[in-house]
Write a structure and sequence with these properties.
Bound molecules: protoporphyrin IX containing FE
Largest sheet: 7 strands, antiparallel
Number of domains: 1
Order of helices and strands: HEHEHEEEHEEHHHEHHEEHHHH
Number of strands: 10
Strand order of the largest sheet: 1-8-9-10-6-7-2
Structural class: alpha+beta
Radius of gyration: 20 Å
Number of helices: 13
Shape: globular
Length: about 350
């Protein structure tokens, strides 16, 4: 029912965001081992265990309505968070089709899509939207197709054109990002937009990842995890707003760290799109406070070891080198030294 959603939670200011016990249990803990290093960690994006974040192509969870409100707020303040170069409109339609079909198939209680040729009828009950439009005719929607559908889907989205054996980030909706800017990156190629990442270039990670992606087939999406750390459950950790959220990192203490420090996990998926041959890259962000994470003893042990042993370059890049001693101190209380087993 529509009561499945939190309606009033916030991801800034008074931070009323919280995870229900069910959301904590299904949190996508990203570490299969006690240590972490970059790798080409991609696997087929096939349906996972019922109840897990992989059950469906796109995960719609209890934060849906509130996250969409947060996106609208960020866009009001900064419209450049959503950009699409003119040649990317067709990829936007591909993405709209992918999301509408997936949502209507996987969550028929909330979404429906009816097609009569190119005359489509979309109903989004949680957001109270009822839209008739002509597929591939932009004039029949209130905004471009990518903007239209990504205002109704959790997570950030970028669209990459493929040409000259490279991928070019040329459209996106980016309001829940881990400290990078679409406005800065738009038009860049795969290695260019990854330039700030330490170690991975030398390890050949980006060469191999790009080679793999250039061959990605329609109907065979893949997924990977990325992760970082965020103080307070803030979705919009953008460089543009760094002056608003960066200083908060200096106010973490032994007393408040459990509540305020969050592990930020991105479930990233990659889809070849059928008409444009572009690649869609949804980046779905999940936040979980340390206090909630340590309710699962195996996560607590492992997180302690990962954070403690992470190379300095990665802790610096991810923005938590300063707070690492506090984090390790807090987490060590929950690590009894027991061996852990591989996997989640
Ligand atoms: C980081 C975009 C695919 C691995 C990043 C960043 C961006 C980005 C914008 C942040 C860079 C910065 O600091 O400014 C994308 C896009 C992709 C894509 C648009 C879609 C084609 C991949 C793939 C891999 C990968 C397939 C597989 C290995 C990484 C890694 C980082 C990163 C390891 C550093 C993350 C961290 O430590 O927090 N990516 N990426 N990316 N990306 Fe990608």
């Amino acid at each position: 029912s529509l009561d499945d959603f939190f309606h009033d939670e916030t991801f800034f200011g008074d931070y009323t965001f919280k995870n229900s016990p069910r959301a904590i249990k299904r949190f996508p803990f990203p570490f299969p081992e006690d240590d972490y290093m970059y790798s080409v960690n991609m696997e087929p994006h096939v349906p996972g265990r019922p109840g897990s974040v992989f059950e469906h192509t796109f995960d719609v969870d209890e934060h849906y309505v509130a996250e969409m409100r947060d996106r609208a707020r960020v866009l009001r303040d900064d419209p450049l968070r959503c950009q699409s170069l003119p040649h990317m409109t067709l990829a936007g339609w591909d993405l709209l089709e992918l999301i509408m079909e997936s949502f209507a198939r996987d969550y028929p209680q909330w979404f429906s899509l009816t097609k009569n040729g190119n005359q489509w009828h979309w109903i989004n009950r949680p957001l109270n939207i009822d839209q008739k439009f002509t597929f591939l005719d932009e004039s029949t929607l209130p905004c471009g197709p990518m903007e239209y559908i990504t205002r109704q889907a959790q997570g950030d989205f970028t669209l990459q054109d493929q040409r000259n054996d490279n991928l070019w980030i040329e459209a996106g909706m980016v309001t829940t990002q881990a400290d990078w800017s679409l406005d800065f990156d738009i038009g860049m190629s795969f290695h260019e937009w990854h330039a700030p990442v330490p170690k991975a270039h030398e390890m050949g990670v980006f060469d191999r990842a790009l080679k793999f992606l250039l061959q990605l087939q329609h109907g065979a999406p893949v997924r990977r995890f990325n992760w970082t750390m965020t103080v307070d459950p803030l979705l919009d950790t953008s460089p543009e707003n760094y002056p608003k959220w960066g200083p908060g990192k200096t106010t973490l203490t032994k007393e408040n760290i459990g509540q305020r420090q969050h592990l930020r996990v991105e479930l990233q998926t990659l889809f070849r799109l059928p008409r444009s041959n572009a690649i869609a890259f949804p980046i779905r962000c999940y936040l979980c406070s340390f206090e909630d994470l340590v309710t699962q003893p195996k996560w607590a042990r492992r997180l302690h070891r990962v954070v403690r042993d992470l190379p300095d370059e990665l802790a610096t890049y991810k923005g938590f080198i300063r707070n690492r001693p506090l984090m390790v101190d807090y987490l060590s209380q929950f690590d009894d030294g027991a061996p852990t087993s591989p996997g989640w």
